[in-house]
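Appendix B, Record 12. Input sequence as logged:
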Amino acid sequence: MRAALIVNRITASREHNLQGALAGIGRAAETGAELVMFPEAALTGLVNNDRPARDLGFGVALRAPEVRALAAMAQKSRIALAIGLLERDRNRLYDTAALFRPDNPEPYVYRRITPGWHGKRAAPQVYGAGIEVDAVRTPLGALGFLICGDLFDDGLVAKMKALAPDWLLVPMGRCFKDGSHDQRRWDREELPAYVERVRRAGSTTLIVNGLSDRHLAGGSFGGAWVIAPDGEVLASLPLGNPGMLVADL
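Logged structural output:
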């Protein structure tokens, strides 16, 4: 399988994010990619501030024109597309990863289970969570999803290990509190922790981190990694810049 992990520059403009994602899918198709993966909330940005009247307006339904445009581009390119978004389902909001497949018109949807994408006092009747992890069968193999902090939940990782997907996809929106893109700090302090979590999960893992300005969830610092079940980093994209990591797996 050839996978393209795309770090797009995420803004508060859904239209900007959409056009960047569409362009990225086009570039990935030119490389012969079969799977294209974007970060957490790549379409909408993590723009929520725990005020429902405001935040619900930033959520996007899975039948919205922007989402249909991404699905159509994936179908046209014969690519499996995994992308994160703040999903609005009536009066609820979810941190969601959607998978669009050439062989199936209906998206596979995974909703983040851990609550780290919103504040501790966010209204639970509005800011929702997924219930269970799963693995979806595709022509590329079985794909599992964990979003950002889900990877650090021992129970979720144990369940994912039992499912044993061929590929584990982890979109995220990590930042440092100072808003920096500190590669040395990542390599020294953070990457070893992610490597250990991948070892626990036991599947080849694709991680893509968003890249955004500091006023959006602290300014996520980008980067992409492919990590083998034994913890070997097979391929990576440096922090701090938009780009595409293409890996043959």
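Residues 183-201 form the longest helix (19 residues).
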